[in-house]
Each structure stands twice: as structure tokens, then as C-alpha cells.
Amino acid sequence: MRRIEGGRFRMGSDRFYPEEAPTRSVRVDSFWIDETPVTNAQFERFVAETGHVTLAEIAPDPADYPGLDPELAKAGSMVFEKTAGPVDMDDFAQWWRYRLGADWRHPLGPDSLIRGIEDHPVVHVAYQDAEAYAHWAGKALPTEAEWEFAARGGADSDYAWGDELAPGGAMLANYWQGLFPFANTLLDGFERTSPVRHFPANGYGLHDMIGNVWEWTTDWYAMPRAG
User: β-strands 76-80, 96-100: how paired?
Assistant: First the structure.
């Protein structure tokens, strides 16, 4: 882990997604944070010691999902699938598909394994699974402010390394290049996840704070509201 000295910073952005606005001044106390996202190998040790069963491994209760197709009342999770061409970008179901048997052990479905990608971030982990892992490890999930403060690596720019996404053409994080969700040019070398220390650390010595996978924080998600 790395100890991050607290301070005040400019949180959010007015240039990208609406939920990131408005930019505001936020102060955080000092805190500790892992150098990398939790890997498959780390999560596997957690499950081996605790017997934890993730949400994706439990069949959904139809009573919780009115109108659920009975055929889908089985354990599974959402898996990203490239489309054949351009699609309606307001319909995420075009590229996220519920796949039976998909879970942290089987990231692409029942026929896939984590062998060979033990150093990649674990996926198909719900909030309660992340909390259970953190408790087992004697840690806690960060707040959104702590996470963003750490992700910036001490910089006040669009990205932890500056205001240019790919300076000089250099790929500094694992993200989609090309036309989403059907044409990934793979300039970063990865179709899906990447090993946690493959890309350079930010100014705080933290890896994959930008790109690779989504990460959990303790805050409730909220869209901005007009006043």
C-alpha cells in the first residue's frame, strides 16, 4: 500500500461526463491505498480462506426482478461483447450481455478461466464482494474523493500524466482506442484487461488508476441536479 498525504484538490471535471461536473474544491485527510487493483490471485486467496460466494455466483430471485425471463434466473453476470458495427449509443444492452456462468473465476463465461491472467484485476465483483474482501484484508474501500485524489497522482490535469491522452502516441493506460463498441485498434496491446503493473505508475506510485477496470468506492452514485 501507499500512504497518501491529505490535502485540498480540484475534484471533478467540466470537460467530459456530465456526472463529473461541476468542478469543486475538496479536502481529504491522509489515507492508505493499494498500489494496484485487486488481482485474480489475491481474490482467489480470499475466497479460499473464507469460502466467500460472490453475487454473480448466486441465481437471482425472480421476485426481485419483475418481468425477469425465467431462463435468466440463473447465476451469471454482464460480459462486454463487441458489436458488428455502429449501434445506438443510448442502449448499453447492445454491448453488455448477461451471460450465464460468468463470474470472477470465469470472466467471459463458463468456458473461460483465470489461469494465465492471475495478475490481471478481478472482475464480476459486486459492491458487497468488494467490501467483504476489504474486511478480510483489514482494509476499507476508499471514498470517491480519496480515490480521485489518489488517481490524480498529485497532478491538476485531465490525466495523471498531463492534459494529453496519448502524449507522442504513447499508450499510458488500458482503454478503448477506435470506434466504440465495434472497432478497437488495440494500440495499447489489450483487447480486455491487462496485468496490473504493465503501465507506468502515477505520481503517487499507483498503477491502473486510469483505465483497465472500473473500481468501487463507498459513495452513492448521483447525477448532478440543476438548481
Answer: antiparallel
Q: Say what the pTM is.
A: 0.93
- Residue 29's nearest CA partner among 145, 141, 160, 203 is 145
Reduced to 3 states, what is the DSSP secondary structure of residue 25? strand
> Which pLDDT score is estimated for 227?
47
Please tell me the chain's helix, strand, coil percentages from 3-state DSSP, rounded to the nearest 5.
Answer: 20, 15, 65
- Least Cα distance to 12 among 155, 164, 158, 217 occurs for 158
Q: What single-letter amino acid sits at 3?
A: R
Please name which of 111, 107, 40, 59 lies closest in space to residue 80, comparing C-alpha atoms: 107
Q: State the Cα torsion 7-207-125-42 to the nearest 10°.
A: -110
Please state the rounded mean pLDDT for residues 34-53: 98
